Each structure stands twice: as C-alpha cells, then as structure tokens.
Amino acid sequence: MNSKLLLITGNYYPEPTGIGRYNSEMIDWLADNGFDCTVISTYPYYPYWKVQAPYNKRNKRFTREIKITAGNNKITVYRCPHYTPANPTGAKRMLFDFTFFISVFFKLIGLAGKKFEYVMTVAPPLPLLLCINPYQKRNCYTIYRTYRWMPQKS
Fold first, then answer.
1. Using one digit for the tens of pLDDT, what is the confidence trace for 40-90?
2. What is the per-residue burial (b if ≥16 Cβ within 10 Å, else e) of 103-116?
3. Which H or E run contains 144?
C-alpha cells in the first residue's frame, strides 16, 4: 500500500519556471517512487501574473484533474479559484495569498474524510501553515517548506 501525500502549494504544473516547476518535478518523482500523491494548488499563473490557457476559462471554480507522470502514475490535482493581480503590488499580493488560503480552507473541508500520511506545504504564501495545523493533531507527518526570495542585481 502506497503512502498518501498531500501537497498544498500556490505554484504547480504547468508553470515553466521557479517553484511551480520544482513542485511538479518533486511530486512526479514521489508518485513514480511509491507515493499516492494529491495536490491542492492555484491555477497556473506564474511568471506571467495571468491565468494561463486553457485554465483561464474555468479559473472561477474548483476543479479536479488527473496528471499522468512519465512512469504512468496518477496524481490528483485540485485547482482552487483565486484572485490574480495583473500588476502585483504588496497589497495585491497579500490579497492573492489570502484568496488562495480561503479556497484551500474550503477544499480541505471537502477532503476531510481522506487520510494522508504526509502533508506538505510550500510557501509562499505563509498562511498555508494554518491549513496543515489540523493534520498535526492526527497521526500524520507535516512538512512546511519555504523558499527565500533573493534580490537580484542588475
């Protein structure tokens, strides 16, 4: 029986760069190496700060999709509606993170009967730490991964 893992992240496949690409490759590897993986994520928007086609036609509702890995394993992906600012400022970015957090909260209520051995969140956004708190009280390993943003010199 495969270990069940839930990843909660704001960035995931098919984002071509950054955290989304890393998360996708990590979950693909885990699925191909014996984990039953489920992902809760936003609709792909990065690096363009615009929901990408074909997701832009359904990004106002919760959806479920199945991603097939190179090893022919299935990953269940739940997409959550969220606000995506065209020009992200500090305040708009906080609103973006907050709307994703609220969507994740409701999606987790819908998945309340499903049991996971591992729950991982990848930040930003930082409020996702609150989403894994209920899992810390169960017989479940919780992993909170953060990425530092480094200023770039031009």
1. 999 999 989 999 999 988 888 999 999 999 999 999 999 999 999 999 898
2. bbeebbeeeeeeeb
3. strand 141-146
